[in-house]
Design brief:
Layout (H helix, E strand, L loop, with lengths): L12 H22 L3 H22 L13 H17 L7 E2 L4 H26 L6 H24 L5 E2 L5
Antiparallel strand pairs: 1-2
Length: 170
């Protein structure tokens, strides 16, 4: 059932989109339980709140006039500012790196993948039901996956772990 009362099959792309956002939000809860960086925990809570907004937007029945919370440009800007702050402390990325390093960093990488899937599902929904997914939702998910990648590196760095460089076979 959609927000507003409409019904679609369980396998509908709209259900897939907001279900994947819900999965991501749950995974961010797991990450919060492992984070030992207070500022990152605070930002994580803010992101989880925004993901409820994203889920509401995606779950809204496009045939009904239902008010849902809105995502703001400042929500995207928060992710960008947080990435900039973390990148100031991180060594420059000169190689591809493999996910891993420590449990929290690895969880951040899994969340990044879930976020990318949520973005793919949302862009698909936007394509087949034009105008039903605000562009800012897609942009937020895109920036969030980037944020989660930087957070994974940052968590590992703060824990003193070396990044695992990908060395392709020749």
């Amino acid at each position: 059932m959609l927000f507003g009362g409409g019904r679609v099959p369980k396998h509908h792309i709209r259900i897939e989109a907001y279900g994947t956002v819900d999965e991501l939000n749950s995974y961010l809860g797991l990450i919060a339980d492992h984070l030992n960086l207070e500022h990152a925990k605070t930002v994580n809570k803010e992101i989880q709140d925004r993901l409820f907004t994203v889920g509401s937007v995606l779950a809204r029945d496009p045939e009904k006039s239902v008010e849902v919370p809105d995502l703001k440009e400042s929500d995207v800007e928060l992710l960008e500012k947080e990435m900039d702050k973390m990148n100031e402390e991180l060594p420059a990325l000169t190689n591809f790196i493999l996910p891993g390093g420590n449990i929290t960093s690895s969880h951040c990488q899994v969340a990044r993948c879930i976020c990318r899937r949520a973005e793919r599902r949302s862009t698909h929904l936007s394509e087949i039901q034009e105008g039903t997914v605000p562009e800012i939702v897609i942009r937020y998910l895109n920036r969030l996956s980037d944020y989660l990648f930087v957070l994974a590196r940052f968590v590992s760095f703060k824990a003193g772990n070396e990044e695992i460089i990908w060395n392709p076979r020749k």
